[in-house]
Write a structure and sequence with these properties.
Blueprint lengths: L1 E6 L5 H9 L3 E7 L3 E3 L4 E3 L2 H9 L3 E3 L5 H9 L4 E5 L7 H4 L6 E5 L11 H8 L3 E8 L9 E8 L6 H24 L31 H10 L6 E5 L2 E5 L3 E2 L11 E4 L2 E4 L6 E2 L2 E3 L6 E2 H6 L11
Parallel strand pairs: 1-2, 1-6, 2-5, 6-7
Antiparallel strand pairs: 3-4, 7-8, 8-9, 10-11, 11-16, 12-15, 13-14, 14-15, 16-17
Helix pairs in contact: 1-6, 5-7
Length: 306
Amino acid sequence: MRVLFAGTPAVAVPSLDALVQAGFDVVAVLTRPDAPLGRKRVLTPSPVAARAAELGIEIIHAAKVDSDVTARMAAVEPDVAAIVAYGGLIPRPALDIPRHGWVNLHFSLLPAWRGAAPVQRAIIAGDDVTGAVTFRLEEGLDTGPVFGTLTESVNPGDTAGALLERLSHSGAVLLAQTLSAVDAGKAVALPQQGDVSLAPKLGLEDGRLDWRQPALAIGRRARGATPEPGAWTTLAGQRVKLEPVLPRPEAAALQPGRLAVDGKSVLVGTGSHPVELTRIQPSGKKMMTAADWARGQATLESVVFE
């Protein structure tokens, strides 16, 4: 079966590899254009583009699927299209190209967390279980009927990056299985059932920690915003980046945002019990351990996160 694969970030690479290893004829890859990365803003291929180049697969770079891109996709004559975090909408003319349609691997248990940041939103919301589904892509936002489902526990220390990494591999297996069923004429897509929730992309403000909230909510937000857009707070009007914090329910209470040292640990007050800082990146400096940062503060007890 001839497959057009659409994807951009690193979490989509395991799916591309799984389809190639399963023996599908991946005739082309649709991915976002090269983007500037790093301090020097060097134009860099997407992870999917880089992997496709290694595999010798034709690459279609597109920030938007217009008529020219649609024509290029039609020219490779795919039987089915698989899409994993491509990062753009697929309009009706392109949806109609493959005779078996488009199969989307999405990292949530639809209809929960429709949108661009399902794993991040699930962690911030405190979900104990998430997963991945394959579904038939439609013009609506993640509304299509579901082919297959897998579940994954959300561990207490999971960041969005760690959970996405696990789901990218288990989801790749699910995608390959779904396409095999499509090829055999045995795939059955069932309408989504349950409560709908939305997962828009996280912006910078979504990573800001509000120390007046309970420690549990702060911990979830920090983990959900890691690695992108990153958790942060402000100190003396400057933005300070933070890696996920640890709960310290046994520690003496502190006022929200107030800091204290407990042995080798640096604690911050919240709306409930304190949390422990792990790593911190002050404005204009490199990421460092909280203990190293604290040693550079004259009187830590006078420091307050805003």
